[in-house]
Amino acid sequence: MNEKEIILEIQGKEYKVLIEEFTAEKASVRVNGNKYSVAIKDLGIERAAEIKPEKGKPVVKPAKVEAGQKQKTLSQKPKAIPLDNAVLSPLPGQLLQIFVKEGDHVEVGQKICLLEAMKMENEINSTVQGVVIDIKFNEGDTVNQGDVLILVKPPES
């Protein structure tokens, strides 16, 4: 895992936290320069599907570069994706199977893919209704929590 730095505010005081290593059981972190090895008691994975992004906040996902394609330059910014029309990965893992394709109609609660996380298979269900307009990953790809899995065009009102 790449190191990740976050700033936490606890009771009005700011703490700079550098996450150096993170697994399901333990983490190695630096808090304001002091190194700590901490045990992870509960990642809250069983509640991850309940976590909803704030409406109206866009997710920017860099485009995948296929063999033979040129990578976009920095001046070509990726388009923001409205979260209202996206199904997000509730946890990090590997996509084992995708059950929909572009053009398919999906309903809220419909199984769209199977994700392996921590040696368990998790069904990912659609959180939106409409027509699949883009599938952002392929079977076998690794995804992070919060990654956009599919984009859905909502039904016309």
List keywords for this structure.
2 domains, 45% strand, 0% helix, mainly beta, OB fold (Dihydrolipoamide Acetyltransferase, E2P), 157 residues, four-stranded antiparallel sheet, 14 strands
Descriptive notes:
There is one protein chain. The chain contains no helices and 14 strands. The chain is mainly beta. The chain folds into two domains: 4-39, no CATH class; 82-157, OB fold (Dihydrolipoamide Acetyltransferase, E2P) (Beta Barrel). The strands form four sheets. The chain has a four-stranded antiparallel beta sheet, with no helix packed on it. Strands 7-14-12-9 form a four-stranded antiparallel beta sheet, with no helix packed on it. A four-stranded antiparallel beta sheet has the order 11-10-8-13, with no helix packed on it. A hairpin with a 2-residue loop joins strand 10 (111-117) and strand 11 (120-125). It is elongated and about 50 Å long. Mean pLDDT is 75; it is low at 47-63 and 69-78.
